[in-house]
Write a structure and sequence with these properties.
Elements: H1 8-27, H2 31-39, H3 41-47, H4 50-69, H5 71-91, H6 95-123, H7 129-157, H8 159-180, H9 198-213, H10 216-232, H11 238-246, E1 250-255, E2 258-262, H12 264-289, H13 295-313, H14 319-347, H15 353-360, H16 362-370, H17 373-377, H18 383-411
Antiparallel strand pairs: 1-2
Helix pairs in contact: 1-7, 1-8, 2-3, 4-5, 4-6, 4-15, 5-6, 5-8, 6-14, 6-15, 7-8, 7-12, 7-14, 10-16, 10-18, 11-12, 12-14, 13-14, 13-18, 14-15
Length: 414
Amino acid sequence: MNITVWNANLKIRLFGEALFNLLYWMYFPFIAVYFSSALGSQLAGLLMTVPPLTAIAFSMIGGDLADRFGRKPVMLTGCCLKALMFAVFALSSSHWLDYLCFIGIGIGGAIYSPASDAMVADLTTQKNRRQVFAVFITANNIGAVLGPAIGATLFFQYRTELLWACMLIMAIYSVAIFYAIKETVPAAANSHQGSRGIWNTFLNQWKAYRTLLSDKVFVLYIAAGVFAIIAIMQLDLYLAIYVTEFVHLQTVLSVNDWSFTLSGTEALGWMLGLNGLMFVLFVLPSAKWLKDWKDRDIFMLSSFLAGIGMFAVGLTTNIWLLMLFTVIFTFGEIIRSPVMNNFVSEYAPQESRGLYMGASKLQFTIGRFLAPFAVIVADWMMPILVFGLIFLSALVSVFLYFYVFKLISKKLPA
């Protein structure tokens, strides 16, 4: 789907989110270092467990509110909250106030995200939805690749200026949402809109969550995603430990008297760089290559490639082979990204699309919470056994995805 024919809502959001995401990745990777130096590593580590928990609650709340009151006001609320928190963060002279602002920024993002995803689903057809989501993912990943490289200098030397820049971008984007973005909530959700008091709002949200959790297919879908995320997250967890500990200095290229060598730490840096570069270059092409594939097949292939790629890492310490296996498990991670939101868009009832989008984020939060198990068991298990458990987690994901779509097929009319 050509960007030039996109709805104006999508164009504005693509530009605004891409620009902010670049700024976001200039400060986010270094925030734990900032709090560790200010408050101590143990306390900072404990404090950093709070943002994912708040994200769970507020992403579901934001999704439900997007169904009840519309996408635009919820997105505007999330953006304004982030702009306010960035301003307070920039003015703050207290590390505890800084931390509360960081929590507030995360809450604003959690409120905004499901409404934003639901708006994409509202404005796209089933045929084009995967590719549109792929464009947004590519734009965000460009920021994830470039942001840390730029932020490594800006965050520590010009942190206040960087925070003010984030505030200004969010303020401008909020104005753009207010004046230029049009509401897209489906007509089927109109009956849920309107203010009926705070108590009734919370009561209706509780009923919506209870209904969602009673949806066996969707709960199994989230479980399948959790097992997949456990495998995928090992790039930053056990795989990183394995490479730095077991991959020793070796010659990668040699021409006459010239040679290029890498240590384990340097090899990890190259693997991470390759992972990020592949996301930027191949999310869109892979969405086009697999446009005729069923969601089920892409999910199953994704989990299998991520699992087998991770497992293969444990079989070697050769850097060339490690780079090859990085390509395999990264491709597994790449192909699932556009399909996730596409699946939720098609599966969720129109009147509850925002709620389901918010609940879908649970797989990331729970997966990230459980993924460090590999690091814990590594103290008394051989590396190949740890990688075997990671592969087993991916295979469980494959089976659950197969079962989810089997249940869906039984629901469809003959």
